[in-house]
Every structure is written in C-alpha cells, then in structure tokens.
Write a structure and sequence with these properties.
This protein has about 190 residues and is α/β, with parallel strands linked by helices. It is built from five helices and six strands. This is PIGA GPI anchor biosynthesis domain-containing protein.
C-alpha cells in the first residue's frame, strides 16, 4: 500500500461484530511472523472486545515487546458480560507497558476494571480542541435542520439512539434532514 502501510490478513472467520473466536495460541505463528519480519518495536492494541487485540498483546509480551493498550470503553461491573470482560482485561493487561484512555472517567474505569496501576494509564482526550476549531460565524439560512453523524453502525456507538431520534426530529421539524454515516470499521492485523 502507499506510504509504507502494510496490511496483513489473518484468515480467521469473524463470528460476532468482526471479532474472531478466542484461540489463545492459534494466532501465535502469524503474529510472531509479522512482529519479526517487520522488525516491530512496540505493539499497540485497541478495543476491549477484540480477541485479536488481546492475543496480539499477549504474544508480544511473551516475546519481550513493549505493548500499549488504548481503551475508551465504559463497561460496568455487575452484568455477566462486563464481569467476564473485566477478567479478560486483568489477564491481558497484567504487564502492559502503558495504557491510554480518552478521558479521565475512562481512565478511572479502566484502572478499576483491569487492576492496572494508575501511573501506567495516561489520558489523551478524544475530543475537539476548542481553541483550534471554532464554528463559522455565518449560520445557514432558513429553517433547514442538517444533522451529520459520523459513527460506526453498531449498538455500542449509538446507532440504536439514532434510529429512535430520527422520527422524532422529522415529526417536529419536517424540513430537510441529512445524515452522513461512516460504515463499519475493518479489523486488520
């Protein structure tokens, strides 16, 4: 690909939301090959529910690589799914080099869920720097309402809320209504 970007295809069939079944050691040969072939020095994982992320971090740690995990999830502590995922995070993130969260609330949540020491978790805000970006002083004319949503089309990203709010907005404001949606992301190794 252009700009030196390489994409490896891992031939595992996804079973839910582009995630593969956990294999623990099934991905070791291909991940090991990629890490060595590409002379990787740091492995970054993202997405608490990505089995490939967890396995890549685990294999990289075993091979002595530095690993960083980014989390932006605010999962709970009481339901079965959250309890299970918190145990997976504790196992996978047991000795990560560092973790990154997108807010201070997310950091607190990640520290509680994973058992990571707070000094290993850093916050890089996932927001617009309002000092750099200002809305245009010129407002669009008329009564037209334009709403643009850039999001993945999954429940956790608010697609269900969007489906509920569109009819309400259209009933209250029958003027033009535009939605821009980004599609599903594709997970690559």
């Amino acid at each position: 690909m252009t700009g030196g970007l390489k994409v490896y295809y891992v031939p595992w069939r996804p079973f839910l939301m582009q995630n593969t079944l956990p294999t623990f050691y099934g991905t070791l040969p291909i991940i090991r090959t990629i890490l060595i072939r590409e002379k990787i020095s740091l492995v970054h994982g993202h997405q608490a529910f990505s089995t490939l992320c967890h396995e890549a971090l685990m294999h990289a740690r075993t091979m002595g690589y530095k690993v960083v995990f980014t989390d932006h999830s605010l999962y709970g502590f009481a339901d079965v799914g959250s309890i299970h995922m918190n145990k997976v995070l504790q196992f996978t993130l047991a000795d990560v080099t560092q973790a990154i969260c997108v807010s201070h609330t997310s950091k607190e949540n990640t520290v509680l869920r994973s058992g990571l020491p707070p000094e290993k978790v850093f916050v890089i805000p996932n927001a617009v720097d309002t000092a750099m970006f200002k809305p245009s002083p010129e407002r669009p004319g008329g009564d037209e309402i334009v709403i643009v949503v850039i999001s993945r089309l999954v429940y956790r990203k608010g697609a269900d809320l969007l489906v509920e709010v569109i009819p309400e907005v259209c009933r209250l404001h029958p003027n033009a209504f535009l939605i821009g949606l980004a599609g599903q992301r594709v997970t690559h190794a």
